Amino acid sequence: MPAEWAPHDRCWMLWPHRPDTWRGHGVPAQRAFADVAKAVVASEPVTMGVAPGLLATARAVLSDAVDVVEMASDDAWMRDVGPTFVVDGRGNRRGVDWVFNAWGGLYDSWEQDDDVARRVLEHEGDDRYRAPLVLEGGSIHVDGEGTLLTTEECLLNPNRNPGLSRIDIERHVRDHLGVERIVWLGAGVVDDETSGHVDNLACFVRPGVVVLTWTDDTSDPQHAVSVDARRRLDAAGFDVQLLPSPGPLFMTADEAAGIDRVPGTKPRSARERLAGSYVNFYVANGGVIVPLLDPRHDEEAVATLATLFPGRAVAGVPAREILLGGGDIHCITQQVPSRTLGS
């Protein structure tokens, strides 16, 4: 699996529409997704998968530079439902199609989401490995040189693969991604409904260097989580760079009221803590797309990432509407690495 900063052929996204995820029947989130797509397409091609019946709506909002294809989905988290691409030493590319179970059953029906990876690979013309493992793309991060980061909270959670041991999970991950070393962090960002995806907590910015969400506020439960993660990263020999943690951020009463309540899903409520993180950015060919979440910390986060990614334009995009749905910019994007990377 190549690192995210390696060259891409394109980026895939999905159009938000689920009324119990997105307030206002998805309209505010659609504008936010369009802004992210516009920022990404400045560096690389973008394809947006859009549910049947919404093609005209999406086309009217999206930049003309963004490609639109019809693609049924239950929600809009392409990082988690799309394929994880791998390349070999002969210039071939294939996609890993993980089993998807809605993050351990956050909603009742996820069959369309579980089919997204297959359909993306058909569009790309790439062969497919159907993996015997429940896993989402946001739960892993690699340096492209054989090392992978993940969290125990997510990959060892009994709501994913209850019949598999840590050794079994490590074997499947190594077999499908070509990694040699797996570094386990503990918990993810506080109140992350994905059960602690690593892409919200920490990620590689280059081999040997990891950026970590951080707060100095010892009264915030995120402090203890980040301290534990830093201890593990230090022990693994990484150079750890810190990004400020936004907030804490909470859903407002008006925002909660705009999200439909559907049987079989978790109801949203005012004062619900949002799992905001500047680590949830996307590395495009020529840029880094960063969520803007908190005026008190946005400027510092963008400046820090500009230092960590010299030669790439770092662009901030207002992303609270995406965060209200349960994730952020990295969660809604999935890179397609160049076929020539492995040759």
Protein architecture, described:
- With about 350 residues, the chain is an alpha/beta fold.
- It has a single domain (about 10-135, about 205-340), classed as L-arginine/glycine Amidinotransferase, Chain A, CATH 3.75.10.
- Helices cover about 30% and strands about 25% of the residues.
- The chain has a 4-stranded mixed beta sheet, with helices on one face. A 3-stranded mixed beta sheet has the order 4-5-6, sandwiched between helices.
- The longest helix has 15 residues, at about 25-40.
- The chain starts with 7 loop residues before the first strand and ends in a 6-residue tail after the last strand.
- About 50% of the residues are buried.
- The model has no long low-confidence stretch (mean pLDDT about 95).
The CA-CA distance between the termini, in Å, is 13 Å
Order of helices and strands: EHEHEHEEHHHEEEHHEEEHEEHEEEHEHE
How many alpha or pi helices? 12
Please state the average pLDDT score: 95
User: Which structural class do you get from the secondary structure elements?
Assistant: alpha/beta
Number of domains: 1
CATH level 3 topology: L-arginine/glycine Amidinotransferase, Chain A
**Total strands:** 18
- Computed Rg: 18 Å
Strand order of the largest sheet: 3-2-1-18
Please outline the major beta sheet: 4 strands, mixed
Unreliable runs, pLDDT <50, ≥5 residues?
Answer: none
Query: Can you give the helix content as a percent range?
Result: 25-40%
CATH class: Alpha Beta
Name given to the CATH homologous superfamily: L-arginine/glycine Amidinotransferase, Chain A
